[in-house]
Amino acid sequence: MSATLAEHDEGSAQPLAGRAVFIDKDGTLVENVPYNVDPALLRFTPHAMDGLRLLAQQGYKLIVVTNQPGLAYGRFTRAALRQLHTALAGMMARDGVPLTDFFACPHAPGPAGRVPGCLCRKPAPGLLRQAARVHAIDLQRSWMIGDVLDDVEAGRRAGSRTVLLDVGTETVWRMSPLRTPHHRAANLLEAAQTILANDEPAGDDTLAASSPPDEPAAVKALVPPALLHARATRWAAWGRACFPRSAAPGRPKQGPPLAPDRPELVEGSPYSASGVLS
Ligand SMILES: [Zn+2]
């Protein structure tokens, strides 16, 4: 793993034995309702609880990692997001599925949606790394499930394996090795079965897996090598930092100010129910 991770893993002297499955929220765990924080509108995706119950029974911690730019846009508050998280955990518990934690990036995308304004918004791996520190999780024995390639990239950047839910959410298909899922599945039950059937730590192929056989050559040809190189260079720069509050003095600030007109809505650190961040 990179020096980046070592730099911020002060607690790694203890063995990291835990395994987790990181789950995107909107479109993966629950049906996507834009900017929703109303618990009454929460609907699990098909077979979600059946799949996650299987994973929990096998000892995986289940952790939601979600981009919530609605906080930066002032669409809702941290308190409302906390209520939603509490309701979601309650619904899952009633179905016999324990939710270990819930991490959310509260920041807006960077300019033009291309340059990140923070290091926790997926496809950055910050939320996964934060969760790994809080819950002593071995990222290489863990998995990320999501319905877009930004989820896949976040998972791979964290060193985990990935399952893309092929449910039609992703429409851009900007591919690179880091955006190539290890597996694909039609729903969370199929994803869980895939994980349990491939239950060994990620190897050295984590960052260099070949494209899946069903990826059309025409799609790969759409991404010029120069663009891939530029992306890789930019990511390498981001990887040297972690969260704003732990950034080294003098490091250039990434992206624009976040919701400068309503600073009370957006703090520097991600939302987490663990209490260490919010
Ligand atoms: Zn963020």
Kindly list the characteristics that best describe this protein:
Rossmann fold; seven-stranded mixed sheet; alpha/beta; disordered N terminus; binds zinc ion; 8 helices; 278 residues; 7 strands
Structural features, described:
By secondary structure, the protein is α/β, with parallel strands linked by helices. It has helices at 3-8, 48-57, 78-94, 126-135, 149-158, 188-197, 217-221, 225-239; strands at 20-23, 61-67, 101-105, 143-146, 161-165, 183-185, 271-272. Strand 4 (143-146), helix 5 and strand 5 form a beta-alpha-beta unit. Residues 1-14 and 204-267 have low confidence and may be disordered. Zinc ion binds at residues 105, 107, 118, 120-121, 270.
Figure out the total of helices. Answer: 8
Query: Oligomer, anyone?
Result: single chain
The share of residues in helices is 25-40%
Query: For this structure, what is the CATH homologous superfamily?
Result: HAD superfamily/HAD-like
Taking Cα atoms only, what radius of gyration do you get, to the nearest Å? 18 Å
Q: How many strands, what sense, and barrel or not for the largest sheet?
A: 7 strands, mixed
Average pLDDT rating: 76
- Domain unit count: 1
Bound molecules: zinc ion
Strand order of the largest sheet: 6-5-4-1-2-3-7
Tell me, briefly, the overall form. globular
Q: What is the helix/strand order? A: HEHEHEHEHEEHHHE
Distance between the termini: 28 Å
Protein structure class = alpha/beta
Describe the structure concisely for a colleague.
The chain is an alpha/beta fold and 278 residues long. The chain contains 8 helices and 7 strands. The protein has helices at residues 3-8, 48-57, 78-94, 126-135, 149-158, 188-197, 217-221, 225-239, and strands spanning 20-23, 61-67, 101-105, 143-146, 161-165, 183-185, 271-272.
